[in-house]
Write a structure and sequence with these properties.
The chain has about 475 residues and is of the alpha/beta class. The protein is about 45% helix and about 10% strand. It has 2 domains: about 140 residues, Rossmann fold (3-Layer(aba) Sandwich), CATH 3.40.50; about 240 residues, Rossmann fold (3-Layer(aba) Sandwich), CATH 3.40.50.
């Protein structure tokens, strides 16, 4: 049965929610508390709070042991608890505008290792679509629970975070079985993901560092943007930052256990949401300045330090961090967020940045997705105590090592680019000509230039 299409915010309105019609904005703010399943919550896809200020957290130097300001934009207050909902909406709205998907006619398939799938499970039904998430079976139990709650179905594929090929294979199988109905919205391929983060996330970062500068913190610019890659959507914000602040270094992160870009490596790991064992189509690798690898176990142990009551007591006591700050951090960070903070610390040390420099990174989700992972960690390594807290603070954060760092030389950028061939040309149907076009920054500039046109189309469709 055909349904009337649902249209939400423009890219401009996701960046500047104060420009949303005031009545709609107020309805959305109310619905965030009263009914998260109400489609009006599409207008809550923004990095900003009800005060129209960017939600960020200044990571205390007592935790990091480095001089630069590590600025953490956090996703907890997006409708699904992760900024990936912005990518899912952007991909869906672009396809709906072009007539490639229609509610009531098509089933949307969301290939994911977690937060994009959760975003699809929320966005799809809100826009009137039957939705199916493809997710590795070893992802946290909380991920599967959220997908079901938001009204989508799920297929669990073999393996862990880095088993993306199995997801792709399942998508192909579904399309072959019902090509008229099934539409795959692939975060690793769709440029709506890139555009959301370039424009909405990138410009939100600019507002955050400028606000800090007005407060006398930092120089109002970005010295580095650090992000682990899953789909490589988030790291597109670095392209916007480098446009404005030319000195910005874009630093990508991946697990030591699966160092694909760093060493052509492979393997399983448990930094859920990153390290997917291939180079994604939407990743502008020729604009990258470095790749760094982070240990997945250190990320999980670090998260336990930040969120376990015993660890929090140590941080707010002996470590000298304000108790309110400890409490805040514990509620806004997950495993990949810890990975990003550790990457920011390594970046600060490697580039020898100073107290006036800003390193910006992202907390993709929060602890609510990882209680089961923390429980399993305690079962394996024992419950948190003071000795573990001291050891993890000093060993993981204060003594972060400068190993597994690969700089973005001309040679390495060519290698990163060439790795796309094996997934996208051999397996996913792209052409060599399309791949070669991505070598030029003009290709990426054209992708970004489409945003005003898309916004005009959304406004016209809304009437």
């Amino acid at each position: 049965m055909k349904r009337k299409p649902v249209y939400g915010p423009t890219f401009e309105e996701m960046l500047y929610p104060e420009r949303i019609d005031p009545a709609v904005r107020q309805r959305a703010i109310d619905a965030m508390k009263e009914d998260i399943l109400d489609p009006v919550n599409l207008y809550n896809i923004t990095w900003k709070g009800t005060d129209n200020r960017v939600r960020y957290f200044l990571v205390p130097r007592e935790l990091t042991g480095v001089e630069p300001n590590i600025v953490l934009l956090y996703s907890r207050d997006f409708p699904t608890g992760s900024h990936k909902v912005g990518a899912t909406y952007s991909v869906a709205i672009e396809k709906q505008l072009r007539g490639e998907i229609r509610p009531g006619e098509h089933t949307l398939v969301w290939p994911s290792t977690g937060n994009y799938g959760i975003g699809g499970a929320w966005v799809g039904p809100r826009m009137g679509y039957d939705s199916l998430v493809i997710l590795p079976e070893q992802m946290s139990a909380e991920r599967f629970e959220k997908i079901a709650y938001y009204g989508a179905r799920v297929i669990a594929t073999p393996g862990c975070e880095s088993n993306v090929k199995e997801i792709y294979d399942k998508c192909k199988e579904l399309v072959k079985a019902d090509p008229e109905r099934v539409r795959v919205l692939n975060q690793f391929e769709e440029m709506g993901n890139y555009r959301f983060h370039y424009y909405v996330t990138g410009n939100s970062v600019i507002e955050a560092v400028r606000e800090l500068g007005e407060k006398g913190i930092g120089n109002g610019r970005t010295a580095a943007f650090v992000s682990a890659m899953g789909s490589a959507g988030t790291i597109a914000a670095g392209d916007r930052l480098k446009e404005l602040f030319h000195e910005t270094r874009i630093v990508g992160l991946e697990p030591i256990q699966c160092p694909t870009l760093s060493y052509n490596g492979y393997g399983g790991h448990d930094i859920q949401g990153i390290g997917d064992k291939h180079v994604t189509w939407i990743h502008n690798v020729n604009n990258m300045d470095a790749m760094m690898c982070i240990d997945d176990l250190e990320c999980k142990k670090g998260l336990q330090l930040l969120t376990d009551p015993v660890g929090m007591k140590y941080l707010a006591g002996e470590a000298g961090i304000d108790e309110t700050t400890v409490e805040k951090l514990s509620g806004i960070i997950g495993i990949s967020g810890v990975c990003n903070v550790l990457g920011a610390i390594k970046t600060a040390r490697f580039y020898e940045l100073g107290p006036n420099d800003n390193i910006v990174t992202i907390a993709t989700d929060a602890i609510d997705r990882y209680r089961s992972v923390m429980k399993a960690l305690s079962h394996t390594y024992g419950k948190m105590d003071r000795a573990k807290a001291v050891s993890r603070h000093e060993g993981i954060f204060l003594s972060a090592k400068l190993d597994y760092i690969v700089e973005g030389t001309v040679e390495n950028r060519k290698r990163w680019h060439n790795l796309k061939y094996y997934t996208w040309v051999e397996q996913q149907g792209k052409t060599v000509e399309e791949l070669n076009a991505q070598k030029s920054q003009e290709y990426w500039i054209r992708q970004r230039a489409m945003i005003p046109e898309l916004d005009a189309m959304i406004r016209a469709a809304r009437g």
